[in-house]
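Following the same procedure, the fold was encoded as tokens, giving this record:
***
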Amino acid sequence: MVTILTKKILNVSLFIWLSFFIISFIFILFPDIDIAFSSLFYDGGFYLKGSLYEVFFYKSVPIVVSTLAVGSIVLYTYNKITKHNILSIDNRKILYIVLVLALAPGLIVNATFKENWGRARPAEIKQFGGDKTFTPAFVLSDQKGNSFSSGHGSAAFSVLGFALLARKRRELWIALALSYGVAVSFARIIGGGHFLSDNITSFFVVYITTHILYTYIMEPKQ
């Protein structure tokens, strides 16, 4: 069984693919999980919205991601001009970084899911004082919302792409990147901006996309 789960599809382990499909199926079969989890942070309003934690992690995402992206491009340009090789930022790494950011949080999450699924945010639905109807994850909705899936969550988890490039203490950087993604996702949930399923979906989308791109762009061909 363990051997089967370690097999890879598009260079992503079968375990990850199965986890994504099983968890997604659970949220479709039992959509009240989203309501129950969000209700933990609701008492006449999402009482942690506007808290230091929520605001800090919400506003940190564009700063962190843009700093890493721009910093990589600046280092690449510097290396080209000076013929140095600081942090080994080369053509392949720049291509990889651009595609990670463009495809996972950009094309898949924001342009495809958020712009077309129509799922209302927690703070917009009737259960939490809004006027829109709750719909399960993965189910197309006419609520004209942007809840599914989490844009901030996907952008935060895309830091994983940078962590995979680490040459030293790689596991530590990966753990920090995933922890940051979880922290941002939690901030979106407690603020009524997204459901639990929105953020879990964004995690899997980014994780799978990032590892596929890393394998085909960064790993040496045998």
Summary: The mean pLDDT is 92.
